[in-house]
Design goal:
Strand content: 35-45%
CATH topology of the largest domain: Rieske Iron-sulfur Protein
CATH class of the largest domain: Mainly Beta
Order of helices and strands: EEEEEEEEEEEHEEEEH
Distance between the termini: 21 Å
Strand order of the largest sheet: 1-10-9-4-3-2
Shape: elongated
Bound molecules: FE2/S2 (inorganic) cluster
Largest sheet: 6 strands, antiparallel
Number of domains: 2
Number of helices: 2
CATH superfamily of the largest domain: Rieske [2Fe-2S] iron-sulphur domain
């Protein structure tokens, strides 16, 4: 799914700490996922309007992110607010990074460029514990088809539940390119303190899952 078509999972919430940023790709489009110091997550195009440096290489300063190259600073709306080489300049409103809407749900950061899409809902009251993001060398369609063969329910396009014994995993699929896919995996738990040992167990399970998915995609 593209950012224009709906809500796309772009990172585990736990992997983006306050004051940090990370690059990601959705359907070939490079984005930066960053979290300001108040804890709010943001998803933008990963390109500084000045000379095109990746914003994911930048530095978060409070509620601004500063580009690594010449230090231009952008507020949470993507608007450039400060240019170090011209400190008294009132920055033109046209200097702005294209932004997406960003929300967090099920321990996952979601982003969209659509104004009409609804966030996926699995109607689960449980808490979640992050397991890991898994990067698989095959397309999202093949990944989803293979996940269904091992029992994942198709709940909402790029989101599914997989029951393993008494446990339930939530798998959110991010299309990176036609040949690469990320799966963000969280464990549903009764309380966040329950996740510890099982998170490790399922992180190991996920590593084997990557191998199985790539094998299945090869023979499909
Ligand atoms: S490229 Fe970003 S400030 Fe120059």
């Amino acid at each position: 799914m593209t950012l224009e078509a709906g809500w796309v999972p772009v990172a585990l919430s736990a992997s983006i700490e306050p004051g940090t940023s990370a690059g990601a790709v959705v359907d070939g489009k490079e984005i930066v996922v960053w979290r300001d110091n108040s804890g709010k997550a943001h998803v933008w195009e990963d390109r500084c309007p000045h000379r095109g440096m990746r914003m994911s290489f930048g530095f978060v300063r409070g509620d601004h992110i500063a580009c690594l190259y010449h230090g231009w600073q952008y507020d949470t709306a993507g608007q450039c607010r400060y240019i170090p080489a011209h400190p008294t300049l009132e920055v033109p409103q046209t200097i702005k990074v294209p932004t997406c809407s960003a929300e967090e749900k099920y321990g996952i950061v979601w982003a969209t460029a659509s104004t009409e899409a609804s966030l996926p809902d699995i109607n689960a009251a449980a808490d979640v514990a992050p397991v890991r993001s898994l990067y698989v060398e095959c397309g999202a369609g093949d990944v989803i088809a293979a996940l269904k063969t091992i029992g994942m329910g198709d709940l909402n396009g790029n989101l599914g539940l997989l029951a393993l014994g008494e446990d339930q995993l939530l798998l959110a699929v991010q299309e990176i390119s036609t040949a690469k896919t990320a799966i963000h995996i969280v464990l549903l738990v009764q309380s966040v303190s329950d996740g510890g040992g099982k998170r490790k167990q399922y992180a190991q399970w996920a590593a084997r899952l990557r191998f199985d998915l790539e094998q299945m995609a090869e023979v499909a």
